[in-house]
Here is the input.
Amino acid sequence: MIAIDLKDKSILVTGGLGAIARVTVARLIEAGAFVIVTDILGEAEGQQALEREKLTPSRCEYRTMDVTSSKDVFSIVRSVFEKHPKVDVAIGLAGGCGLHPFATCSEETFAEILRFNFMGQTYFTRAVLQEWAHRGRPAHMIYASSWVGSNPWPDISAYVSAKAALDAFAKCMALEYAKYGIRFNAIAPGHVAAGSSLKVYETNQQYREQVDRVIPLKRLVGVGAVADAFVWLASDLASDINGQIIRIDLGASIPKLA
Here is the structure.
């Protein structure tokens, strides 16, 4: 068995209290990483959430950060690097949305979904790169994308557009920053048995039938499988991976006959 050792890694995570993120953070810590978890909840609430997950206190800390506010992101990222200058992996896990058919999705809601799922990632990237640039250290940015970024899905056009943009952005950044030894990749989960994906699957019959039709293995992706993919990508085992969108989707993205 190949053991993944992250004991020399300091990892900064956004959206760290989400359904997939909580499992990912736990797996990162289990592998030995020190993880700085950020999310929208206040400091006390966030810390309590980490305690409920029984995460090793000495291997993580919590910061409140709103990824949709560039000012907030730059301020928090700067303070994190002042305390933890050796952060060399950053994972943008913040994102998500429910069903929003375009016909009934207001301009404001559409823009909010784009800001949360795409612009927030660019704010985070810009802030982290500002810190990495003058340190001259190899580093790795990893995004949480989605298989719908390359496989459009009805009733979530804003989310699909945001993830498609993020996939393209990751590849552009991989080209631009390779000369600095900074890599960019993304994990693109399919329909996961956690969070909003699971909630909609369980409550919306039409959505459930659509999902069941497109997944060859006829089950939802396990949240642990997605978390493990992030752990592997954050490790030295994936040191030659750059500019890739790695799908964890049980074959949902395989082209099929009508």
In short: The mean pLDDT is 95. The longest helix spans residues 107-133. Residues 10-248 form a domain with the Rossmann fold fold (CATH 3.40.50.720).
